[in-house]
Amino acid sequence: MSEQTIDDLVRVDALVKTFPLRNAWGRTTGTVRAVDGVDLTIRRGETLALVGESGSGKSTLGRSILQMDEPTSGTVTYDGVDLTSLPRSRRAPYHRSMQVIFQDPFSSLNPHRTALQNVMEPLTVLAPGGDSRAQAIEALAAVGIDGDAVHRRPRAFSGGQRQRIVIARAIAVRPGFVVCDEPLSALDMSIQAQVTDLLLRLQRELELTYLFISHDLSVVREIATRTAVMNRGRIVELGPTAEVFASPQHAYTRHLLDAALSIDPVQARRRLERISTRPDLVGLEPEGTVLTEVSPGHFVLR
Ligand SMILES: Nc1ncnc2c1ncn2[C@@H]1O[C@H](COP(=O)(O)OP(=O)(O)OP(=O)(O)O)[C@@H](O)[C@H]1O
Ligand SMILES: [Mg+2]
Q1: Is the CB of 31 inside a 6 Å radius of any atom of ligand 1?
Q2: Which atom of ligand 1 is nearest to the CA of 57?
Q3: Is residue 222 part of a domain?
């Protein structure tokens, strides 16, 4: 892929993450290559969507970029600094700059603490010395939670409001980069559009860069600047979203789009989750070895 430019906030080179494969007795019987040699750049201010079937390695790639999973090999560079060779003791600023929003707001919030306490917690750890209470109140207000509501516990909120609290907690520390891992999947359809709008508004106001992992290709088509398609740990296609959707070049991308866009979103999600068991796709190993530029900015594994 191309050389890093100052427009690239995140750069991933030859990234590999393996996990031991264990049998029912816990004995190691091999390794899973969850991320299998990924090269990728994420540009400042963009939303890069990451799509692919269940188990293709999307979350592992996101977690490896954030150093939540220690990469097996390869490098992750953030704002010009190679995080993979940085001693742990010097990683703290990056734990603040790089945040994550997971699918399930229930498990990401502490149920025994109020909304305000939940948002204050990372501030006191990652940005000590500031007025964490005022910053948390400001972040909660930015997502539409204010007044006495900030003193309620997660259970007292609706699913959409809980996800807003999770988003407030992520932005309160003023990150530059946020991995959104299926941030809408646990929400009702009617709430998804509101939370999507919120994420887009915060991105503009706070100049955030997003890695947006999603099964919902209709949302991806609407909000992503570029889209990367992942299959069995590899990126098989990457390009401007409109172009990838209008003119998919890799066979796997075409299968994914056919499966997802021809039917309603709920069914599409189930089909995407099951796609790895479809006999016609099981044999579809990522073809090729090199991401090759087929038109400006549009790369395909060839
Ligand atoms: N902690 C782990 N230990 C062992 N194997 C893991 C671990 N995390 C992920 N894997 C394996 O790595 C592969 C990729 O998983 P990952 O969760 O990254 O996929 P995904 O694309 O995010 O899937 P989904 O769409 O279902 O969230 C899978 O085979 C999974 O079983
Ligand atoms: Mg996942």
Answers
A1: no
A2: 18
A3: yes
Q: Which of 16, 60, 214 to mutate to test the pocket of ligand 1 (most atoms within 8 A of CB)?
A: 60
Is there a domain that residue 106 lies in?
A: yes
Q: Whose CA is nearest to atom 22 of ligand 1?
A: 59
**Contacts for 11 with CB less than 8 Å, ≥ 6 apart:** 4, 40, 41, 42, 75, 76, 77
Structural domain contains residue 1: no
CA of 146 to the centre of ligand 1 (A): 37
pLDDT digits (tens), the chain, 302 positions: 555 566 899 999 999 999 999 888 989 899 999 999 999 999 999 999 999 999 999 999 999 999 999 999 999 999 999 999 999 889 989 999 999 999 877 778 999 999 999 999 999 998 888 899 999 999 999 999 999 999 999 999 999 999 999 999 999 999 999 999 999 998 998 899 999 999 999 999 999 999 999 989 999 999 999 999 999 999 999 999 999 999 999 999 999 998 876 655 565 555 555 554 444 454 455 667 789 999 999 999 99
Measuring from atom 7 of ligand 1, which residue has the nearest CA?
19
CA 136/CA 120 separation, integer angstroms: 5
Cross-strand pairs, 48: 211, 226
> Minimum-distance ligand to the CA of 230?
1
Alpha carbons 244 and 253: distance in angstroms, whole number: 8
Residue with tokens 């796709």: 281
Identify the residue whose tokens are 């190993």. Answer: 285
Q: What is the CATH number of the domain that holds 278?
A: 3.40.50.300
Q: Domain of 40?
A: 8-301
Ligand 2 centroid distance, CA of 234 (Å):
15
